[in-house]
Amino acid sequence: MHPYHHAVLLLLLPLLALWAGGVVTCLLGSWAAWAFRRNAASRRGSFEPRVSLLKPLSGLESGLESNLESFFRQDYSNFEILFAASDPADPALEVVARLRTRYPHIAVKVVDASAPSYANHKVYSLGKMAAQAAADILVISDSDVRVTPDYLPSLVTAFADPGVGVSTCVYRGVPGRGIWSRLEALAMSTEFMAGVLLAWKLEGMKFALGPTMAVRRQCLEAIGGFAAMADYLADDFVLGKWAAQAGYKVVLSPHVISHQVLGEDFRSCFLHRLRWARSTRFSRPWGYIGQVFTYPVPAALLLAAMQPHSAVMAAALVSTIALRCLAGLAVGWGVLRDRHVLRNWWLIPVQDLLSFAVWCGGFTGRYVQWRDTRYRVWRGGRFEPLRG
Description:
Blueprint: H1 3-39, E1 51-57, H2 64-72, E2 79-85, H3 92-102, E3 107-112, H4 121-132, E4 137-141, E5 145-146, H5 151-156, E6 164-174, H6 179-203, E7 212-216, H7 217-222, H8 235-245, E8 249-260, H9 266-283, H10 285-290, H11 296-306, H12 311-332, H13 339-344, H14 348-361, E9 367-370, E10 373-377, E11 383-385
Parallel strand pairs: 1-2, 1-4, 2-3, 6-8
Antiparallel strand pairs: 4-7, 5-8, 6-7, 9-10, 10-11
Helix pairs in contact: 1-6, 1-11, 1-12, 2-3, 6-12, 6-14, 9-14, 11-12
């Protein structure tokens, strides 16, 4: 065999394996979405325990007032909302003040979380709020999340089972105006959530999702409280992981919430995605490597480029793109009812190429940018801010 053909064959075989693995993953993801829909009988029960909503804040974000207001409008009578910011002059607190005036019947506490002593400022705020929370069910949600009035009833019904320690939600990405924001929202709804549903189906939930996590106080105390997560970047992942290791059930609620993409330009969206890619790489290194099998479109594109005159490769590329779009719709529309996915399904292959680039970028360093601070990430998912 000519050396050139030998080298081409050495490249083709791994690419074929990656492509085949990606196709299988698409099919499995669609199967998991179908199974989740069949199990997603989200019914409100009579179980309505006291709930404390914990809302860490950090600055004025796009849509902040509407996002926060959605939590005041819950069809649930037995809850309180706690807010915390690391800066007492944070303008987000002015938004909270307006909402308190608008909804005087809702119990609200504003907690001082200034001078955070943890690397993870969000976790520091959560610890401060938990110390003043009245309830045994703590619901944690980010400020860029918007919910419907049946959010709390749907989320906490799982805790009627005393073995449940954590309940978390599926979510859809809500884009801003820019193309990069639209692509990141597509990644949330069609790629990341497909992986979540596949993990749920194959091994059960052993992690939680950051936009919303509800935890039983007893479970939280059993895993060391928020202080144990002080130096972890992926606090949502470790919360669910440690709860499962402690023998508690982690439940994936069928209730769908909306997670807003705050970045608009390429740099902000790419850095946000790169931060979570590197966080995943250090938190779950083997799982991160395995993500290569979730990118059939880049693999098929490379195969077609290596064999430009092959009708078989061209057909494989077209078929792969079609399969990936259908798999994305199975999750994004079939489960999440995401109208953005329904309108922009044709951008899914473009999103996959960008996502593959982000995945590759996850291997290139151990530094991440979170808001205005640069951090170094260590093995196991711990991180620390860079000084100076």
